[in-house]
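TICKET: design request
STATUS: open
ATTACHED STRUCTURE:
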């Protein structure tokens, strides 16, 4: 049987009840697997298998709530339907707060149980789809180099091209090229769609791929090496300036650092083969040092 097909995992220590559950779900065309204890289920648990769990509250050993807690700790997305004739109001409330999908009290109607199982399977299918999407999105982000991730973060934060050019020390042409590369690598048609997806993933608390180290910036083959070097140096100087200027006036101790950084950049610019590349950096000089 394909593991893509959802399965109802019955966890019940009463043999007669296990058979009753299995007969009911099988009659509806559902795949069923039954276990006599929570421990037995955990021994056979496979995170790749979709479906839901129907568990008795008063199991010997690990009870139904305890089973759900253990599954939650290992990141399981299987919804748990808890069934019992002994639940107090407080126990039921605690179960729901813990994330139990449904709590059914005995005696229950068969159509009520079947409806709960169908809803739980649909919920599991939806959560697995979202998880796959988040993993795929994170993988796409990993394909971006450092400058592309920095640019994307600024776009998502609402910064326009001009702000990105100034912040990273890049030309308009280069920013446009980076924007196109980001869309191509992530597979989106617009930054509206990309920003929405980025925000949706962040809202789930999912950890996205960290921004690559600055030294890991990849230079496209068609890009002039001198242009890439100059732009990286410009971006570096802008970052130094931002740090030194963040507290207001430039202190006397900071002025030599800025002079040294500007001098190093000037030497790099003079060494570039294309004079038109150096032009945008002329505005980086700091007045009255």
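STATUS: resolved
RESOLUTION: sequence designed for all positions
ATTACHED SEQUENCE:
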């Amino acid at each position: 049987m394909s593991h893509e097909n959802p399965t109802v995992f019955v966890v019940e220590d009463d043999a007669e009840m296990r058979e009753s559950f299995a007969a009911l779900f099988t009659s509806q065309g559902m795949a069923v697997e039954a276990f006599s204890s929570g421990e037995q289920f955990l021994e056979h648990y496979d995170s790749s298998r979709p479906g839901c769990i129907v568990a008795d509250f008063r199991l010997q050993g690990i009870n139904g709530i305890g089973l759900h807690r253990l599954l939650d700790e290992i990141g399981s997305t299987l919804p748990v339907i808890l069934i019992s004739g002994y639940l107090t109001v407080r126990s039921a409330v605690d179960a729901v707060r813990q994330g139990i999908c449904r709590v059914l009290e005995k005696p229950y109607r068969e159509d009520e149980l079947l409806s709960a199982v169908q809803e739980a399977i649909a919920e599991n299918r939806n959560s697995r789809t979202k998880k796959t999407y988040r993993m795929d999105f994170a993988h796409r982000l990993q394909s971006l180099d450092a400058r592309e991730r920095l640019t994307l973060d600024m776009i998502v934060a609402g910064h326009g091209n001009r702000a990105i050019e100034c912040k990273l020390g890049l030309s308009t042409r280069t920013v446009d090229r980076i924007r196109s590369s980001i869309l191509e690598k992530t597979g989106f048609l617009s930054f509206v769609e990309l920003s929405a997806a980025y925000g949706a993933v962040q809202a789930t608390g999912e950890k996205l791929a960290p921004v690559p180290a600055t030294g890991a910036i990849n230079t496209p083959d068609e890009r002039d090496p001198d242009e890439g070097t100059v732009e990286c140096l410009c971006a570096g100087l802008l970052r130094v300036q931002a740090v030194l200027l963040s507290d207001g006036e430039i202190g006397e101790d900071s002025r030599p650092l800025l002079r040294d950084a500007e001098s190093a950049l000037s030497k790099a610019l003079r060494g570039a083969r294309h004079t038109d590349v150096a032009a945008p950096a002329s505005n980086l000089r700091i007045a009255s040092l």
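CLOSING REMARK: Residues 214-226, 243-248, 273-289 have pLDDT under 50 and may be disordered. The two ends are 75 Å apart (CA to CA).
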